[in-house]
Design brief:
This protein is of the alpha/beta class. The chain folds into 2 domains: about 5-100 and about 295-310, ornithine cyclodeaminase, domain 1 (2-Layer Sandwich), CATH 3.30.1780.10; about 110-290, Rossmann fold (3-Layer(aba) Sandwich). Helix content is about 35%, strand content about 25%. It contains 11 helices and 14 strands. Helix 6 (about 155-165) links the parallel strand 8 and strand 9. Helix 1 packs parallel to helix 4 (about 95-115), helix 2 (about 15-30) crosses helix 4 and helix 4 (about 95-115) packs across helix 11. The longest helix has 20 residues, at about 95-115. The radius of gyration is 19 Å and the shape is globular. The mean pLDDT is about 95.
Length: about 300
């Protein structure tokens, strides 16, 4: 009998962002995960991201990156997730890797914001790609944001995303400009493909929570090092941050941050429950830098399977 496959729409229907955001911290308190493997193969780069130990389940995400696919008119990234049954190790199902990643990324950022942000009246979403609407939904629902501002390098796409969010009941509108959006928000989530900082030195604002999810290589950054000055910084995992979190790596290289001054990882942030203490008042801003972690994938997969098989 073939394994069930949970496609993108099924995952979107099964996984409630607020529920997933509340569940993800349990994975950082119980699941184990090695560093993701990057293998150069005949089909391009193969990424292998296993995790185990959450309610007895184990699973792995397999992703291929093939930039030559652009010329073929195909996506450059393909991925799937395989979940295994507790105790027996029997394969239970496969899941769409792309949607699983989108949902767990948004929910993880919202969980970090719930632990770190002091206020969340107005959310600024920087970016208009596939991840952006889910970041808006997760933060607005988990944090209870009353207003959502959207900024993108293509104004028509920013208007389109704001319109779509209004159709879902959010009070959303395009920001007049990126600096204006930054000044008007107390929560900022940045999900772009930019390789150089969109949030530059002269745009720095205090008293905000900043969520950075787009830059995934050491030579990429969405926020300049100045944003890290006097900030309370958390990363998803230490190993991932040291090798892939370009924003943090470049801030360390610029001398405005040290690895010793990074406040902690998500494992440390969530160690004592889902609502750890808010940061001390002397921090100018709080920052969560995400590069993704296998524990997040496992949490989303376990919750999706639980809902699917109920």
């Amino acid at each position: 009998m073939p394994l069930p496959h949970l496609d993108a729409q099924t995952l979107a229907d099964l996984l409630d962002l607020e529920e997933l955001s509340a569940f993800i911290p349990t994975a950082f308190r119980g699941a184990e995960a090695p560093a993701r493997q990057h293998l150069e193969t005949s089909v391009g780069t193969l990424l292998i991201m296993p995790a185990w130990g959450l309610e007895g389940y184990a699973g792995t995400k397999l992703v291929t990156l093939q930039h030559a696919n652009r010329a073929r008119g195909l996506p450059t990234i393909h991925g799937t997730y395989l979940l295994f049954e507790p105790e027996t190790g029997r394969p239970l199902c496969t899941m769409d890797g792309g949607m699983l990643t989108v949902l767990r990324t948004a929910a993880t950022s919202a969980a970090a914001a719930a632990a770190l942000a002091n206020s969340a009246d107005t959310l600024l979403v920087v970016g208009t790609g596939r991840l952006a609407p889910w970041m808006a939904r997760a933060h607005a629902r988990v944090m209870g944001c009353r207003e959502v501002l959207v900024w993108g390098r293509h104004p028509d796409r920013a208007e389109g995303l704001a319109h779509a969010l209004r159709e879902e009941g959010f009070d959303a509108r395009p920001a007049e400009s990126l600096p204006a959006g930054l000044r008007g928000a107390n929560m900022i989530t940045v999900a772009t493909s930019s390789s150089s900082p969109l949030l530059t030195d002269e745009m720095v604002v205090d008293g905000v929570h900043l969520d950075l999810v787009g830059a995934y290589r050491s030579d990429m950054a969405e926020a300049s090092p100045a944003w890290f000055t006097d900030a309370r910084v958390f990363v998803d995992t230490w190993e991932g941050a040291r090798s892939e979190a370009g924003d943090v790596i470049q801030a360390v290289e610029a001398g405005v941050l040290t690895w010793q001054s990074v406040a902690g990882s998500l494992e440390e942030l969530f160690a004592n429950g889902n609502s750890p203490a808010k940061p001390p008042g002397e921090a100018s801003r709080t920052i969560f830098k995400s590069v993704g972690a296998s524990q997040e994938d496992l949490a989303a997969a376990v919750l999706a399977w639980t809902r699917y098989s109920a």
